[in-house]
Amino acid sequence: MKLLLIAAAAVLSATSAFASVVTAYDDASDPIYNSGWAGGSNGGYGFGPWLHSPFGIYAMGDSNLNGTLGGPGINVGGRAWQGNMQPNSGGAVAGRSLGGYTIGDSFEIDVDFGIAGNQGVALLGNSDYCQVQATSSSPTLVLNTGSGTFATTVGYSDGGYRIRYDLLSASAVDITITSFASSLASTYNLAFASVPGGTIMTIQADPTAGQAVYASRMRVISPVPEPASLSALALGTLLVARRRRKN
Q1: What average pLDDT score do residues 222-229 get?
Q2: Distance of CA 110 to CAs 7, 33, 63, 209, 218, Å?
Q3: With b meaning 16 or more CB within 10 Å and e meaning fewer, what string describes 153-191?
Q4: What are the structural domains of the chain?
Q5: Quick count: other Cβ atoms within 10 Å of Cβ 136?
Q6: H/E segment holding residue 93
Q7: Using CA atoms, how far apart are residues 239 and 237, in angstroms rounded to an integer?
Q8: Tens of pLDDT along 153-189?
Q9: In the chain, what is the greatest distance between 2 CA atoms, to the nearest angstrom?
């Protein structure tokens, strides 16, 4: 019995002690974007290449010029990815695969929605979606999902946001929105049917004249057991196996 208790303690300590590692990263300062933000470009590491809809205009730009606030903005190396719609078009959509993004992982992206129009950032999985959207019809950001539309308490500002998707399970996600203008953060739990290892992110722009959607600094963070935890887990497994053989 004593050996089993020790083994249980070792296993519990192993499962609770986790570090984290960045398994995918990209930002607008990557040299691959020096000549522009082209479809098929793939800076950083861990993500799939960028795919662009045919309706948009895609370039590198200064997020501080989006709206009237002038910052703090989301630039990295003085620039961000910029998506504009073409006149009389269906808007601009840019997206890419999140690589190995799966349950337990977090995806972060910095976005600037400007002050008018209908811009957003979304995760796509199976036939489901989960979008954070800025719309001129609401004073706060809204969440659009396959289950409906939900208002947030995050004010609509052109100072930029960090949006984090924590994939809790195959059917649930936590979304944390941090405003760079106010430094306030709010978290929302929503139903979302993901595709582990096959989830796609997109940013969308359907802005009024002079506005665009900007994005930069995106990453996937994965939990990994610390070395001491791996040793404890191995010890616990060995003790349990030895106890079973004696019995």
Answers
A1: 72
A2: 43, 17, 11, 22, 7
A3: ebebbbbbbbbbbbbeeeeebebebbbbeeeeeeebebe
A4: 1-17+226-247 (no CATH), 21-225 (2.60.120.560)
A5: 15
A6: strand 92-97
A7: 6
A8: 998 887 899 999 999 999 999 999 999 988 899 999 9
A9: 77
Phi first, then psi, for residue 229 (nearest 5°) are: -70, -40
Q: Which two tokens stand for residue 114?
A: 């400007």
The predicted pLDDT at position 205 comes to 86
What whole-number distance in Å separates Cα of residue 124 and Cα of residue 138? Answer: 23
Helix (H) or strand (E) holding 9: helix 2-16
Identify which of 148, 108, 103, 149 has the alpha carbon closest to the alpha carbon of residue 125: 103
- Cα→Cα distances 235→5, 7, 40, 166, 229, Å: 12, 7, 47, 31, 10
Cross-strand bridge partners of residue 155? 140
Supply the DSSP symbol for 65.
Answer: G
The SS3 of residue 234 is helix
> According to the model, what pLDDT value does residue 95 have?
96
